[in-house]
Amino acid sequence: MTTAEPRPIGLYLHVPFCKVKCLYCDFYSMPAGEETKDAYVQALCRSIDAADPLCDTVYFGGGTPSQLGTARLTAILAHIRRTADCEVTVECNPGDAAALDFRALADAGVNRISMGLQSADDAERRALGRRSDAATVRRAVEQARTAGITNLSLDLMLGIPGQTADSLARSIDFCLALEVPHVSAYLLKVEDGTPFAAMRAELALPDEDAVCDFYLQTVDALGAAGLRQYEISNFARPGFESRHNLKYWRCEAYLGLGPAAHSFLDGKRFFYPRDLQAFLDGQPPVQDGAGGDPAEWLMLRLRLMEGVTDAAFAARFDRPLPAAFWNSAERFARQGLMTVTNGCAALTPAGCLLSNPIIGTLTETVAE
């Protein structure tokens, strides 16, 4: 008798190292020396070996995964069992690209690179605390592409100090000129505890109306160029959507390893504390209860522009979406914030700007 191979899952690996922390960043990261990086890779590989997942997506996030360098990244990949079509993403700071061997990374299985642009305006980049200029981003993209990695994503940030509609247009045009097939566009949020929070009174931030206009400008410009909005903050040419991130929004299984990494496996959520030494010492993750209930599933799925359907909800929970859900969705549709057609409800771009209260209202209709 043979045991069937388990269904592949996503694997997220948190790399908590940054050369310099950006002024707006609230992610768990810190500077580290070579010995600390080596110790971390060893701990990460031990955790991978112990879990032994079969993965169809792998995502190196951070922090700055490119700070590990080519040899450490390829060493980690050697410990991961992967499907033949596994999507392997590495977040890369453009300033690290010159020291990376992208061809060796591609040979090891890396087939997707996500780079932080934020803005093509160097003054705006400096205001964010970014280390490199736009020319460095361009060279990094070309370097990865020359090595055969064509699935490339750039991050844009909306609502940053000094940004205008014209400067945003130039940043969008920069992405389009590089012909990257994926762009992530995030609204700046000033997080407590960051340098930006302490500087809030001095920041020349655009007002809320301007930021909303920037978002709609981005949706229109990227869409017109063939990068379809598939999630509130993500745009891609067909076939270049982030398969790993889709697992989060579709409430599918994934394992997260490293300090601050979260997991969802077998209907349970757990996470590693934001404590590098605890992870190096082999301390176990913290259990975080059950996940994937109707309200959580709906909250995540409504981030996708494909929306939710009666059929998908019934397939997951063996009951249809309640009338209260459709009544609320129809009300939002009359306000131009959603579309409701053929048993499918989805946010419009205008609705994305109000996604938190809209989704909060709709998830209350299915709460158990």
What does the model show?
It is a single chain. 39% of the residues lie in helices and 23% in strands. The chain has 368 residues and is α/β, with parallel strands linked by helices. It folds into two domains: 9-247, TIM Barrel, CATH 3.20.20.70; 292-368, Arc Repressor Mutant, subunit A (Orthogonal Bundle), CATH 1.10.10. α2 packs parallel to α3, α11 runs antiparallel to α15 (355-364) and α13 (323-334) runs antiparallel to α15 (355-364). The chain is globular.
Give me a quick take on this structure:
This protein has helices spanning 34-51, 69-77, 102-108, 122-128, 134-146, 165-177, 195-198, 208-224, 243-249, 276-280, 294-301, 310-317, 323-334, 349-352, 355-364; strands at residues 9-15, 54-62, 81-92, 112-118, 151-158, 182-187, 228-231, 234-236, 254-257, 262-265, 268-271, 286-290, 308-309, 338-341, 344-347.
What is the first-to-last residue Cα distance? 41 Å
Give me the Rg, rounded. Answer: 21 Å
Oligomer status: single chain
Please give the share of residues in helix. 25-40%
Instruction: Give the DSSP E fraction (strand runs of 2 or more residues).
Output: 15-25%
Report the count of strand segments.
15
Whole-number tally of structural domains = 2
- Provide the CATH topology of the largest domain: TIM Barrel
Query: CATH homologous superfamily name of the largest domain?
Result: Aldolase class I
User: Which structural class do the helices and strands define?
Assistant: alpha/beta
- Helix count equals 15
Question: How would you sum up the major sheet?
Answer: 9 strands, mixed
Estimate the mean pLDDT confidence.
Answer: 93
What is the N-to-C succession of helices and strands? Answer: EHEHEHEHHEHEHHEEHEEEHEHEHHEEHH
Q: Determine and state the CATH class of the largest domain.
A: Alpha Beta
Spatial shape: globular
